[in-house]
Amino acid sequence: MSALTELSSLSAHPIIQAPMAGGASNPQLAAAVGAAGGLGFLAAGYKTSEAMYQEIRQLRDLTSQPFGVNLFLPQPGTVDRSAVAVYAEQLAAEAAWYATALGDPDTGSDDGYDAKVAVLLADPVPLVSFTFGCPDRSVCEAFAKAGTYTVVTVTSPAEALAAQRAGADAVCVQGVEAGGHQGTHRDDPQLDGAGIGLLSLIPQVRETVQLPIIAAGGLMRGSQIAAVLAAGADAAALGTAFLVCPESGANVLHKRAVTDPVFSRTELTRAFSGRPARGLLNRFMREHGPYAPPGYPQVHHLTSGLRRAAAAASDPQGMALWAGQGHRLARELSAGALVETLVAELHAAQETPA
Predict the structure, then answer these.
(1) Residue 184: what are its φ and ψ, rounded to 5°?
(2) Same structural domain for residues 10 and 37?
(3) 20 to 30 A Cα–Cα from 308, which one of 92, 98, 113, 160?
């Protein structure tokens, strides 16, 4: 069976619920998407291996449909601790305002990666995807032996080529329009904002590698899915579109903000995590984005208490409101109804004469 045939066998429709770390992705959402013929995803980022496995068991209790689990790769390199310390001083007033403490930036940088890989090899799931880098070839080979399909998130043709050389089964091509963290393999501050748009990136990757392509970044309508399929993708992954669904575990303030006219645009920022991530422009991003240093996950750990306190205070202006550029097109439908609507729109677009 070819990698493309394997990918298409995982769901009835070429629609994937993108993994969203931080709570939005959960077993209920993944199960609902799978029941409607899409491919649901769990997000293991920021969770322990035990918490990840608990969600896998919960999802298996809810559905017999295939699903995926997304992993964050460990972050190499040396962080400028003095820059993080200066940023902590700048955030002191935020901590005082929310009556909370800043987090410990040295909580850890590997996200429990090895332990999660071990769990997923011991009790395999249908698909595992990787973000923030490319796994070693030995990891891809181990998952292949376990019968698990592997996908690597890429943001450039060079990253796609690295994924192919590592033995990945497919790539998730992420355009700069995507909400949440940019999945670049190497975080280079000099390249902030220099990402490639999805419709320009897909054909570049298509002409570089022979792997199946999952397209991600700002997709909200079936007509957009038709466009990326026509551009060379084999499936489409949508995050923000599913974030507002009732099954999503996202904070209700986050869900409301996605379509609230108060939040008129998105920006890439390092303010919350130290890595470029696209979110709804709010006070925290405006005030701290210009000064936030590169330093993931240290800055993520540093701001963790602030983000929790802002949510507890019902203050979306202090929360990380991750969203893609198409956020204003979000529809408050159940996950199943959204998949059905997207499929109908996709078919209509494909049947429309050019």
Answers:
(1) -60, 145
(2) yes
(3) 113
Element (H, E) at 28: helix 27-35
For residue 8, give its domain range.
3-75+111-259+326-351
Q: pLDDT tens digits, residue range 145-181?
A: 999 999 999 999 999 999 999 999 999 999 999 999 9
CATH number of the CATH domain containing 56 = 3.20.20.70
Q: How far is CA 244 from the centre of its chain?
A: 15
Tokens (6 digits) for 98: 């929310």
For residue 214, CA distances in Å to 170, 226, 254, 290, 304 come to 8, 13, 26, 33, 31
Q: Answer yes or no: are the C-beta atoms of 237 and 17 closer than 8 Å.
A: yes
Strand partners, 181: 277
Residue 328 DSSP one-character state: G
Please report the beta strands in 54-197, taking only residues with DSSP state E, as ranges in sequence order: 67-72, 127-131, 149-154, 170-174, 180-181
**Which structure tokens are listed for 130?**
């990787």
Same domain for 97 and 237: no
Element (H, E) at 49: helix 49-62
Q: Output the pLDDT for position 107.
A: 82
Same-domain check for residues 226 and 165 = yes
